[in-house]
Each structure stands twice: as C-alpha cells, then as structure tokens.
Design brief:
There is one protein chain. The termini are far apart. Helix 1 (12-24) links the parallel strand 1 (5-9) and strand 2 (30-33). The protein is built from 9 helices and 12 strands. 39% of the residues lie in helices and 18% in strands. A 5-stranded mixed sheet has the order 2-1-3-4-7, with helices on both faces. The protein folds into 2 domains: 5-174, no CATH class; 195-266, Arc Repressor Mutant, subunit A, CATH 1.10.10. By secondary structure, the protein is α/β, with parallel strands linked by helices.
C-alpha cells in the first residue's frame, strides 16, 4: 500500500503554494496548515481560549478563537498512523519557526522528516539581468512553479534525535518564559515584550500627519530583507493603537477602530 505523505506547513500562504505545486507535479500528498501564529500570545498552558482572549485584549482581534481551534483540529486530523510526516521549517520566519516548535512538541515521539529551507538557495529570474541565486527564506514566499521545478519536497530528511531534542529544549524554555512575543535573534527564537517593535514604528513617525498604513507598511518592509521575515502586520497595527493610548502618538480620522483609515503623528510632548 502506498504511504500517504502529510506535509505540515506553518504559513497559510505557503500551504496554498505547496498545494498547487503538488497538483502540478501530479502527486497525491496531503497538506495540513496552521492558521495560528505562535510567535505572539501565551503558549503555556497550550489553551486556545486563553490565546484567543489575549489576542482580543492585546491585538483587538475578536475572531481568534476559531483560528486557534481550527489549527488544533487540523493537527489531530493529521495523525495518520501509516502516513509519512514531513514538516516545513524555516528559521528565518518567527511565525513559521514558532509554529514548527509548537507542532513538534505536540507530536510527541512520532517520527517525522524535515524540510529546512533556512539556508536553501533557489533560482531567481529577474525581469532585467541574468538569473541568480537567492535564499528561499520562507515557503510562503515561493511560487508553486518554483516549488515544483526545484522539487523542494525531495529535501526531506528524517529529523535526528539530537536536533529534535535541541528544538524541544528551545520550545520548553520559551514556554517557561511564556512571553508576549517570540522574535528572531540571529537564527534563534527568543522571548520579547509586547513593546519590542514600538521603537521601530516610532522611527517612521514624524511631526507631520501621515497615513497609519504607511507607518505600518514601512515598518514591515524594514523588518523583511533578503534573509528573514520578522514581523506580523496584525501586531504592528495593534501597537500603533497602543502608542496612541499611551500618549506617544496622536491620531485622527480613525473609524471603527481601524487604524488604516487614520493618520498619525508624534504627540506634542514627544516632538
């Protein structure tokens, strides 16, 4: 009997691209994705309702309970006793790295294989100039054609016990710290306060009014380069509101709590 291959992916956009690539290749592999973001919020205890409440209070999202519960259900549905489990990891994305660590911790002793994209180089064909090589960075940043043409699923290797223990030790430490955020520090994931990205946001705010979306967008771009994806826009949008509430920013034109309909500038006391 043919063994079912289950791909566990920690970014929804990456899952969509992988599904298309698998279809293009004529494979019948299954893809299971997490929609939760384990780089923020409480992780100890692993309670979906606690995470949803935290997201509502800190990030202003009232719909996170369905996100967390759906992810947990997907993990349970993916426990095929005779399937080959393959996880896609990158240590260049805080969201994907944290998602992988949480998944591995929940997996228990079940064996699995790993596709580690952290240092994988892929072909890049710019509109102008010759083809070149670049870091894959994240599955979510790769097109279905690139995944398929490079046959990235062939990179899967069994996760060795020493590496597994190292990953589990890291997640055990992060769970014990149970910080609001988990952020990238080199190729490691470390705990951080909820205000970690505030200085970055403030660096793009001036004494003149400008769209809040522009401030968030510039912060996002600065947190992404040719080697990592560090920030989530959900967090940045919430932190703009927090900076307004604590008096560091002024805001105008906001409707229904949506900062993207507003403009911000430095508060008088800060300028």
């Amino acid at each position: 009997m043919t063994q079912t291959i289950l791909h566990f992916v920690f970014t929804p956009s990456g899952a969509g691209g992988l599904v298309q690539a698998i279809k293009k290749a004529g494979r019948d592999d299954k893809v299971i994705a997490s929609f939760d973001d384990m780089s923020f919020g409480p992780i100890n205890p692993p309670d979906a309702s606690l995470r949803a409440k935290w997201v509502e209070n800190e990030l202003g999202r009232a719909d996170w309970s369905s996100v967390a519960e759906d992810s947990g259900r997907l993990w349970e549905e993916g426990r095929f006793p005779n399937g080959r489990i393959v996880a896609w990891l990158t240590r260049r994305s805080a969201k994907e790295y944290a998602g992988f660590l949480d998944w591995l911790w929940r997996l228990g002793d079940q064996p699995c294989s790993l596709i580690d994209l952290t240092d994988v180089m892929i072909a890049c064909r710019p509109e102008d100039g010759p083809p070149r090589q670049r870091l894959a960075i994240s599955l979510g940043m790769l097109s279905p054609d690139r995944i398929c043409e490079d046959k990235l699923w062939d990179l899967a290797e069994p996760l060795q016990a020493t590496a597994r223990d190292r990953y589990l030790d890291l997640w055990r430490q992060l769970r014990s710290e149970n910080a609001p955020l988990r952020v990238l520090h080199g190729d490691r994931l470390v705990s951080a306060p909820i205000s970690f990205f505030d200085s970055l946001l403030m660096s793009f705010v001036t004494e003149n009014w400008q769209r809040a979306a522009r401030v968030v967008g510039r912060s996002l771009v600065s947190g992404m380069d040719d080697s990592l994806v560090a920030i989530d826009d959900i967090l940045l949008r919430a932190r703009v509101n927090a900076l307004v509430e604590c008096g560091r920013l002024e805001i105008r034109g906001q409707s229904d709590g949506d900062i993207f309909s507003s403009e911000v500038r430095l508060a008088a006391a800060v300028s």
